[in-house]
Specification:
mainly alpha, three-stranded antiparallel beta sheet, two-stranded antiparallel sheet, 14 helices, 6% strand, globular
């Protein structure tokens, strides 16, 4: 909203300093600061409110050290994160931008799904919370919205790179002046595309149409049958991965902040034609606006970490964890970096896989030997290390260090190919 206000003031009255709102970097910084302020100031008040209302966590006895002291810790703190994301984005982003609309819809949609789960657990005293099938339906719902919008909306396009060997009329070239020269960059014609980015490959673009191209010509119009299920699968996987990671103080929050910073870099360069040309990556018009949203996301996570670090004063609950994972998934899909998710979301992936492997192996061995066996002492993975005797804070810090290493590797893929 402030973007539109100050743009109007700049054009109508030449208001001093109003033009700075045209810069994505300024609005991203403002969103980050505002998000930090909201999460840290309002966060304290919400925690006190939750304590007065006795909205506390019910902890199952898993035989883990330090588990008993978590009993009664305020939960549903994800409301702090959601507020700290939504308010700065509404203030500083271009609200008519299709990418901003989709990430805002994802935030609200999955925030509501997670809130319903927490509400049932806390106020209805039902430890099971929202049935798993309904959670998955909620995730499928937002996956359908994002998938169909990306595929059919004419506002979501890319500009094809002009290869050195290709001849393209000057009238069809989108170029940028570099000193006295003009460099051919991208086609002026924006096109609908189901292409995405493959890491570590020179010409690093992959078209989802490849999956059905073997059928014969004319399959392009049916690519949505492949693309949309993939979007849904990614949303469900990453959202549940974040949910499983939220088991130690500060782990999911810190991991999300690192992932958010990585996505911010990828979004900024993908939406800037000069950087996209220099890095030889896909140029996605108008996607740079996502840098404002992800700045608010980072600020929300860091601000929440102030209260969620060991020993936690508040837990985010499913209100926060389901939303954070879904946001990461949708954001990566929008900037066409979803194939990089196993790298920069490596912590979420490891937590997810540890549960899948543990459950699958237990069921298999029970059928085969009559007795279930385990790969890990406990899953998700962070509980395995707790069972080995590592202190909670040490596990969290080491996981975050691994997350930073994975984030650096992700950014390096921009040039390492």
């Amino acid at each position: 909203m402030l973007y539109y206000l100050f743009t109007w003031l700049d054009k109508a009255f030449d208001f001093p300093g109003a033009g700075v709102f045209n810069y994505i970097s300024f609005r991203a910084a403002a969103a980050l600061i505002t998000s930090l302020f909201i999460s840290m100031i309002i966060g304290k008040r919400l925690i006190n409110f939750l304590r007065r209302k006795q909205v506390g966590e019910t902890v199952r006895d898993l035989g883990l050290d330090g588990q008993a002291i978590k009993q009664g810790t305020p939960t549903m703190g994800g409301l702090i994160i959601l507020a700290a994301i939504l308010v700065p984005t509404l203030l500083f982003a271009k609200l008519l931008n299709i990418y901003i609309i989709l990430v805002l819809a994802t935030t609200v949609w999955l925030g509501i799904v997670g809130f319903l789960d927490d509400y049932i657990k806390v106020f209805k005293k039902d430890k099971k919370g929202l049935p798993g099938k309904l959670k998955v339906l909620g995730q499928i719902g937002i996956g359908l919205i994002v998938g169909f919008t990306m595929y059919f909306s004419h506002d979501i396009v890319i500009r094809e790179r002009i290869r050195k060997t290709a001849y393209v009329p000057t009238s069809e070239v989108f170029s940028v002046e570099s000193g006295a020269e003009k460099t051919k960059l991208f086609s002026k014609t924006a096109v609908k595309s189901t292409k995405t980015t493959i890491p570590f490959v020179k010409n690093n673009e992959f078209d989802y149409n490849w999956f059905i191209s073997w059928i014969g010509p004319g399959t392009k119009k049916w690519t949505w049958l492949v693309f949309i299920p993939i979007v849904i699968f990614i949303v469900i996987s990453v959202s549940n991965g974040a949910n499983l990671t939220d088991g130690l103080d500060g782990l999911a929050t810190g991991s999300s902040a690192i992932i958010g910073l990585t996505l911010g870099v990828l979004a900024y360069v993908s939406g800037n034609i000069v950087f996209a040309n220099y890095l030889n990556i896909m140029y996605i018009p108008n996607s740079g606006e996502l840098a404002i949203y992800i700045s608010a996301f980072i600020g929300a996570c860091i601000g929440f970490l102030w209260y969620n670090s060991y020993p936690a004063q508040v837990f985010m609950g499913d209100t926060g964890s389901l939303a954070l994972g879904g946001i990461v998934a949708v954001f990566a899909i929008l900037i066409r970096k979803e194939i990089l998710i196993p790298i920069f979301c490596g912590i979420f992936l490891a937590e997810n896989l540890s549960v899948v492997l543990q459950v699958s192996w237990f069921k298999y061995t029970k059928r085969r030997y009559g007795e279930g066996r385990r790969i890990f002492r406990m899953s998700p993975l962070h509980h395995h290390f707790q069972k080995l005797g590592y202190h909670e804070s040490k596990i969290v810090i080491r996981f975050l260090i691994v997350g930073i290493m994975l984030a650096v590797l992700t950014i390096v893929t921009l040039k390492l190919r």
